[in-house]
Amino acid sequence: MSEPFTTLSGKAAPMPEENIDTDIIFPARFLLITAKAGLGRYAFHDRRFDANGAEIPDYVLNQASFNAAPFIVAGANFGSGSSREQAVWAIAGLGVRCIIAAGFGEIFHSNCQRNGILPITLPAQTVAELMVAAQTEQTFAVDLEAQSLTVGNRAFAFDIAPERKLALLNGWDETSVLLHQYAGAIDEFETRQKASAPWLYAEDDAS
Amino acid sequence: MTATTLYEKLWNAHAVAELPGGETLLYIDRQILHEVSSPQAFVAMRDAGRQLRRPQTHIAVVDHAVPTRSPRADGIRHGTIEDAQAASQIAELETNVRDFAVPYAELDGAEQGIVHVIGPESGFTLPGTTIVCGDSHTTTHGAFGALAFGIGASEQGTVMAAQCLRQKRAKTMRIELSGTRHPLVFAKDIALAIIARIGADGAAGHAVEFTGPAVRAMSMAERMTLCNMMIEAGSRVGLVAPDDVTFAFLKGRRLAPKGALWDQAVAAWRDLASDEGANYDRVIEIDVASLVPQVSWGTTPDQTLPVDAALPDPATLEEGPARRQAEKALAYMGLTPGQSLTDIAITHAFIGSCTNGRIEDIRAAAAIARGRKVAPGIKAIVVPGSAATRAAAEAEGLDRILIEAGFEWRLAGCSMCVAMNDDRLKPGERCASTSNRNFEGRQGPGGRTHLMSPAMAAAAAIAGHIADIREFAA
Which residue intervals define the domain Aconitase A/isopropylmalate dehydratase small subunit swivel in the entry (chain A) (predicted)? Predict the structure, then answer.
């Protein structure tokens, strides 16, 4: 279970740079930590802190206006690179619950939805406008049920797969849903596959 | 019947159910686990009181966090790891594989190595299967005609318990490779040239299939390098249809089918090809005869140029994202606009990783190193992708050639591709690297990475700066 996502409002931290990869979001050396909780302090670590651990004042998340922002507006291809889910757990640890970009790394996008974070993909031109709105500290508001993002007096519709929406709205755990709804279909698939591709079951049978 | 692509065939063969909203419940045949991305998945299994649905469809190994040196003369690493967090992460995997009865390629065993090297080597990776791993370079296994993609920790737990994942079908992209390449242009150069051409998100949302005579002429190691790098163009899936090269590679491997099952499997695998006239959403054609060795200069893999080129001058670029990115990358990399690539001095060379840590890669490096010396002050390491690769290289005497040239000969692991073990750069250090990512800090905070082929990295180590292998070899 993750926390259900219904509506959200607040400021958006602007990150106009493109290709912010998951190594930037969560540097590899912190991957030795095996906990999921408490990773917020490592989010964007090498952008937020200098080599001595002191805050870099210019960095967006170190500015008083944005350090508690629940939204991020990012440049294209946000979350590209490594599949590390720690990138999502760390962003969640900052209190961010919605990320808006013209495109995402696909694995990162998928990881967001499994952790109660809503990734919204909008056209590059729209994101450029939202970037300005974020920089000028306008309030962002999202209503997942209505699939609507409101900034100032403008509303933007966004797409999300119905099953993903339902899971986010309810905070459902995907594994439980699959085991509950599709156990019979999975059994039937295995029976069919074992007949057509028996070599894929040789090790199960041997053990 | 409509002509279908290999990707669609693999997808359709694994569809358990079509879900409302256009997603598919996809059956997963194989999952590879490593110490860094799996702990939280096992925690979820324990918390929910679940067991693995089919433990034998999994294989676990330690690769990311392990040191590639041992203080012991016999090379045993277990019990010698100084980094307490790394040692604890490895111990946690050992507990998990024991408690959940997962087959495990143990740290000092003959099958240890990088997930994407040992899967194929052990015959765990097979054509026509779906394969996942908590690692984005799972694209590698697509070289066998397997639908293989990287996933997060939550999804790993779902596969453990349900052997399925909910997935959205990708669009398809065909990359046709024609022509005969220069003998010193490798699969890595082709991959980098493709990424430079289409961009770091140029294949996002697409499953890439490589076709054409230049792919058919490639070894399995080269096909793996090619597929491995497709995530750097934003694609989760790279594919090559299996053929006799694939079957010859797999035959007799420990987990490959045996006897009558082998014959039955090969007969089925021969059908794993895109149909004549199948439609792709995008088609790209590349004549590899026109390519020269490639080197990345920036902080995204698409910031790559032919080795004989000069660095871009942002002042000559139009105002826009490309210009801003070039300015930022040049600043991070400590480079001057317009500078020749071959004038860039290095401090380190790294030959290894899931991209270029196979026996063919080590042979290519050794061929350059033979009878030469690493330049003074350069730290150059060769890290085999697996214990089996290391043993094979030693049987060929490649370790001697490399050590005599001044390279360090290491134990198998991810090493300097991912800065979470002992092998990393310090701020400002610069590495000629056969790995896959030149991201900021990827090889260590403040470290600077230039991606290239193993032969090019070996040449850079010897020259002390980025070198054009075509002149170097003459």
Answer: 3-124
